[in-house]
Amino acid sequence: MASIAIDKLDLKWTGPEEKQILAKVSNRERISDDDCVYLYESSSLGFVGSLANHIREQKHQDYTYFNRNFHLEPTNVCIYTCSFCSYSRLIKKRSEGWEYSMDDMMDIIKSYDNQPVTEVHIVGGVLPQYDLDFYTTLFRRIKAHRPSIHIKALTPVEYHYIFKKAKISYEEGMKAIKDAGVDSMPGGGAEIFHPEIRDQIAKDKCNADQWLDIHRIWHEIGMRSNATMLYGHIESYLHRIDHMRRLRELQDHTGGFQTFIPLKFRNKDNEMSHVSESTIVEDLKNYAIARIYLDNFDHIKAYWPMIGRTTAQLSLSFGVDDLDGTIDDTTKIYSMAGAEEKNPALSTKELALLIQRVGRKPIERDTLYNLVKDYSNVQFEDDFKGYVSLPVAN
Ligand code: V47
Ligand code: SF4
Fold this sequence. Notes:
binds iron/sulfur cluster
């Protein structure tokens, strides 16, 4: 495999620690946790950005992936009390939330019948009536109705709960949901693995080992999943590094993770509203460091409704190669938490144009990163306002 041409990077002002990190990346050696501490604490945005962008271009050139999906959120009421989550407040005033029946959910699925979506992302609160039987029936009904749709459903938080309730092992449970039609698992519920933080912000729900175990078992039966990290609240850089190290180790073992999605903590209407949010500079630095540290992850994804469109465009120069998604207005978890985008809907044309305008090449993919359509050379009528637009050389 060719080594990374670091001579193409204009990094002559770097110090000895940075040169050492550069040499490692150039030789395709992974960086250590200490290197990562250095990057977070002492390195400039320019340095980590250049290095991450270089790695991103080595892996994917200018290609930037997106898929057409919609979210199905069975309920916004939850038995757990994660302090960062605006859903957890509703358990005390349950009537203010929604709890969809199976038929309600099938109606939502059917409302997309004439749209070329390739994925349904199912995630929401945890409630006793949404048990193993309910979900396996739902997955089967979705597949019977639309066999080609990819079901990306539930996280170890729900699975741990419903398997325990059904008194079955993780192994039995994961096989059952695979048989019922689940195609992949989203990355949610990971938050911060380290107990010093997890016990404060997400106590009672599945712990780090359980989260990782469920992904490992899913990978071992040949399936793929994503991983997230909720950052920018009360955790330290060491907690972030611990989180990414555990993911990197599991990925060494199974290779089943597709993408890593850093999720910026938003502080509206939750128990942590007093905690201030990270700056855009910190967000970009975090994407870049994730790209550098997670050498065995193919993709780094930005969830654009959370950070806004222009920061999403910027992130494409800081290690990100994937944007989620053309999601219509079907998720409330982020708008309730104060996301940048109140109505997070973008058409495919808008998303592709947003990518083209910063000189990258939009690729519509399916959930497993198979090509659906290459928009690199598609010329759109440029009638959208509000995105960053760079002069791109032809
Ligand atoms: O686990 C909840 C996060 C996650 C807040 O796999 C919050 O493709 C920020 O994991 N501020 C669920 N984040 C969503 C998720 C996801 C999203 C997009 C794509 C994929 C994928 C996965 O949302 C939760 C939690 O970490 N979250 N509240 C908040 N206040
Ligand atoms: Fe429930 Fe998930 Fe919100 Fe925690 S983050 S309260 S588990 S919906």
